[in-house]
């Protein structure tokens, strides 16, 4: 199976050490960026690049930028004004470790660093635009989640299509564009990304069911029920495998395995 993770970790370490920054600023950025995690979005970017016949090295800056954007979003999401979470990935969240002001700046820095990394890549405007669009849509989804109460399946879908789905689309499309895909194939990759993002959100809702029910929060599980959500997960996984059936090779096998692991995940 492909080892994308080590390539991503090395790239994140290298990029985050490359710029001349005040030490506390750099430390707070690296604290969240290098804190582990599954690197799902970055791995999707690399895998989709190879899926369409590209070279993984061409997509690496985009994969790294996506992880920077994701890390910034988590820092800001944990802030007292947002979800007010004290822990992230088994350790203190950024604002608890460095204070609110430094956490906000760390998030700002990571988002800006992502843009800086992508500006150094020549050509491939479609790939760059996919990442920029994903970052903007993700923030829009967070705004909806903060300010709009989901009341039915359509409003819930709208929030998560942006908040969760946007970076999945950005990852898959930027990788595929870097791999040389055209617009017809990009539509297939987008369909794959949309279904995988929804699959991820539904499994996330299953994992958080006790907390969400205690907070009377509308999720796919509280709206559809446990069994119906599980059925939807199985259906989405089957649809994704159907899309991937037209592809061969290690990247396709990797994405099939990722789909399975997301569908059955327990953490």
Quick take:
This protein has helices at about 5-20, 25-35, 40-50, 55-80, 95-100, 100-120, 125-145, 155-165, 165-180, 185-205, 210-215, 220-225, 225-245, 250-265; strands at about 85-90, 90. It is mainly α and about 270 residues long.
Would you kindly provide a written description of the structure presented here, covering whatever features stand out?
This protein has 267 residues and is an all-alpha fold. It has a single domain (4-264), classed as Farnesyl Diphosphate Synthase, CATH 1.10.600. The protein contains 14 helices and two strands; from the N terminus they run ααααββαααααααααα. It has helices at residues 4-18, 23-33, 40-51, 56-78, 94-98, 100-119, 125-147, 153-163, 165-178, 183-207, 209-214, 220-224, 226-244, 250-264; strands at 87-88, 91-92. Strands 1-2 form a two-stranded antiparallel sheet.
Order of helices and strands: HHHHEEHHHHHHHHHH
User: Can you count the beta strands?
Assistant: 2
Mean pLDDT over the residues: 95
Query: What percentage of the residues does DSSP assign to strands (E)?
Result: under 5%
From the alpha carbons, calculate the radius of gyration and give it in angstroms. Answer: 18 Å
Look at the helices and sheets and give the structural class. Answer: mainly alpha
